[in-house]
Amino acid sequence: MGGNELKKARLAAELTQEQLAFETGLHRTYISLLERNKNSLTIPTLFKVCKVLGVRPSTLVARIEKSKGK
């Protein structure tokens, strides 16, 4: 999905994987899998994660698209 961009957004929000997991109700290992591109976000989960990170889903998707173009 763009795990590197997700990780950048999490770090910019100054959250650990554990904190993000707690705030979203997801498991920490799931966050880790997302950041390592071993799993993909569903649309509802994307919105949930972005809300906690303070990033618009469209912004995160645009960042992912931009990084894929490199």
Describe this structure as you would to a colleague.
With 70 residues, this protein is mostly helical. It has one domain: Orthogonal Bundle (434 Repressor (Amino-terminal Domain)), CATH 1.10.260.40. Helices cover 70% and strands 0% of the residues. The protein contains five helices and no strands. Helix 1 crosses helix 5 and helix 2 crosses helix 3. The longest helix is centred in the C-terminal third of the chain and has 12 residues. It is globular. It starts with a helix and ends with a helix. The model has no long low-confidence stretch (mean pLDDT 94).
Helix proportion of residues, in percent? over 70%
Architecture (CATH level 2) name: Orthogonal Bundle
**Can you summarize the main beta sheet?**
none
Question: Uncertain runs with pLDDT below 50, 5 residues or more?
Answer: none
Oligomer: single chain
Secondary-structure class: mainly alpha
List keywords for this structure.
globular, mainly alpha, 434 Repressor (Amino-terminal Domain)
Layout: helices, strands, pairs:
Layout lengths: L2 H10 L4 H8 L3 H8 L7 H11 L3 H12 L2
Summarize the structure.
The chain has about 70 residues and is an all-alpha fold. The chain has 5 helices and no strands.
